[in-house]
Design a protein that fits this description.
This protein is mainly β. The chain has one domain: Porin (Beta Barrel), CATH 2.40.160.20. 8% of the residues lie in helices and 62% in strands. The protein has 2 helices and 11 strands, in the order αββββββββαβββ. The longest helix is centred in the first third of the chain and has 12 residues. The relative contact order is 0.20.
Length: 204
């Protein structure tokens, strides 16, 4: 949480440098790769029913613009539910696992008329703990409270009121490992599932 506050404070410190400030609400859907678990020994087996699943998100955004360049921090609630066939010593059951998160991306973008291109880090704070699919003392250790990945994509602004976005979200751990240190602060990187995010926003 401390690292997240640092990221938000730095974003707000640059507000005076921008000539145009706007904010709004947004909502949409996202499809992400279903998490898989390596519990295939003995009597335990967890098999995902689908390779990907849709979820939804909703939240707020702030856009700070100057000469075609902008910074856009967001605070978005996201939820995804996945289905598994879980085999244990007692048999096979269909089980669902729901992930609720607060996503906080901070995007740097460039505008070309109504078209936008943006990318930036995205913090994820787990809200509650996803249901443990089997009784295992290490299951809860798979989930961290606050981790970082990234988002990147394109957008379109229409009629000075409507904004559309299509983004890809992914993990940075494959390139940088479990954590990076910037300015003395250590940021834990997650192994989030790849996702494709579609959203519609409304300016106030």
């Amino acid at each position: 949480m401390k690292k997240l506050l640092v990221l938000l404070i730095v974003s707000l410190m640059v507000v005076p440098a921008f000539s145009q400030i706007s904010f709004g609400i947004k909502a949409g859907a996202a499809t992400s790769t279903v998490p898989t678990y390596d519990f295939t020994t003995g009597t335990n087996n967890i098999e995902a029913l689908k390779d990907a699943a849709w979820g939804f998100h909703a939240g707020l955004f702030l856009r700070l613009s100057l000469l075609g360049i902008y910074i856009q921090p967001e605070a978005v609630f996201t939820t995804n539910t996945y289905e598994y066939n879980v085999t244990t010593v007692s048999g096979t059951d269909l089980m669902k696992q729901t992930f609720n998160k607060l996503e906080v991306p901070v995007l740097l973008g460039v505008k070309f008329g109504p078209l936008r291109i943006n990318a930036g880090p995205a913090a994820a704070i787990q809200i509650g703990s996803p249901k443990a699919l089997i009784e295992d003392p290490n299951f809860e250790d798979m989930y961290r409270n606050a981790t970082f990945g990234y988002q990147a994509g394109i957008g379109l602004d229409l009629f000075k009121k409507l904004t559309l976005d299509a983004r890809y979200g992914g993990s940075l751990s494959g390139k940088f490992g479990d954590a990076v240190t910037i300015g003395g602060q250590t940021f834990k990187l997650d192994q989030r599932q790849p996702s494709f995010i579609l959203s519609v926003g409304l300016f106030f």
